[in-house]
Amino acid sequence: ILRCDCLLHLGRAAEVEGTLAPFRAAVERLEEPALVGPFHAWLALAKTFLGEGHDGVEHGERALAAAQRCGDRRIEGLSYSLLCLQAARTGQFARAIERGRRATALLDPATTDPEFAGFAHLHLGGAYLCAGQIGAAAQAFACAAEIGAQCGSLSVQSIAFAMIGTARMCAGELEASTEACRRALALAPDPHSTWLSHLVLTRSSLL
């Protein structure tokens, strides 16, 4: 799992499934929720990064069911966070917001994985943004940036500022958008964060 986490940060999501493949039969045979949950959660993460929505949802739901069986709030929150993102991508904005709220409620940065909590706020903010609720989106992104700063996650901070830039751009605040995107680019620690920062900054500069 730790290796898969590193691969995702390096933008090498395509390698995650192959990394986990040798353990799949054993995980399925044991049917131990504490193992099944993380196993499918990281497959859901990889599929989400790769844009394979159907598989991402399937693994996310399996991770969620396993986490609920064994009381793993961390994996349950992560699963809701990923399902929030997938619902937003398919236009199910109300469902996305509901799942995002569940994720942020479960993932308290003080008691669970703070980076997961940061990403949950990012996904919830994205759902709000897709639904046209720009103020709520900006607030969620600001929460993510604060969590990222508190736990030292440059990835969360960079993506949060890129998304704050997106929200400001949608509100017509182009100068604020550009400033946020430059902060995102300065913080970006990995290829994914760098790409996102450049993308939003380029869009803002064209308006």
Question: How do the strands and helices of this protein lay out in sequence?
Answer:
Elements: H1 2-9, H2 16-30, H3 33-49, H4 53-70, H5 73-89, H6 93-106, H7 114-130, H8 134-151, H9 154-170, H10 174-187, H11 191-206
Helix pairs in contact: 2-3, 3-4, 3-5, 4-5, 5-6, 5-7, 6-7, 7-8, 7-9, 8-9, 9-10, 9-11, 10-11
What would your notes on this structure say?
The model has no long low-confidence stretch (mean pLDDT 91). Helix 9 packs parallel to helix 11. The chain is 83% helix and 0% strand. It is globular and about 55 Å long. The longest helix has 18 residues. The chain is built from eleven helices and no strands. It starts with a helix and ends with a helix. By secondary structure, the chain is mostly helical.
Helix/strand structural class: mainly alpha
Number of separate strands: 0
Beta percentage is: under 5%
Shape from CA axes?
globular
Q: Helix proportion of residues, in percent?
A: over 70%
Output the helix-strand order: HHHHHHHHHHH
State mean pLDDT (0 to 100 scale).
91
Taking the sheet with the most strands, its summary is: none
Q: Which radius of gyration do the C-alpha atoms yield?
A: 17 Å
H/I helix tally: 11
Q: Low-confidence runs (pLDDT<50, min 5 residues)?
A: none
Ends apart, CA distance between termini = 42 Å
